[in-house]
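Cross-check.
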Amino acid sequence: MIWRGFRFGMLLQIAVGPICVFIFQTAAASGFWAAEIGVVGVVIIDALFILAAIFGIGALLNTYKKAKEMMLYFGAGVLIVFGLSNVVGFFGVTLMPSLDFLSEQSMESVFWKTLILTLSNPLTIIFWAGVFSTKIVEEKIGQLDIYFFGLGALLSTFLFLTTISILGSFLTVFLAPVVLKVLNLLVGLVLMGFGIKALAKSNILSFLSFSKPS
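Predicted model, tokenized:
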């Protein structure tokens, strides 16, 4: 089951998201080990999400549509703020002066940034709840196997993001500081794009909920 979970997790990695982009940028700007601390943060939150899904919290959230909608707004807001912080940072402006530790590139700040970014998509719980429900009902696998499947998925996340960290760290050697600064700007725009996309999805859900006949 660990191998099956690993294969499934690697398939999910094809859809590059904001976390992958952020890890790549961190490795390019601060090196492999700083990015790898971020990878650890991602794996910790993903593990909590998977456990929450197994324990049924995902099904609970799926029942209360308003809670799901609020989570989408929260996630979109986090991505937009982080992206905007990168963009204005390109021009030497600090968007979050009260959160100076997040504007630095120390290992501690990278860890907290990845924790917050990963938490910005709590609907991952619902996704995993659906996956595990399908595995239990259709494939008739036991509770213990579900944990092994989740462990395999976590291992795929760790391996994939570690590979991204290695690739990004090579840029530190080959690219000039001004190019890395432009990369930070591009990453900021990409994060804002992910946030706006999530926000649009929230508005669509709100419209469907409002227009649904009673």
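Residues 97-103, 207-214 have pLDDT under 50 and may be disordered. The chain has one domain: 2-211. Passed to J.P. for a second look.
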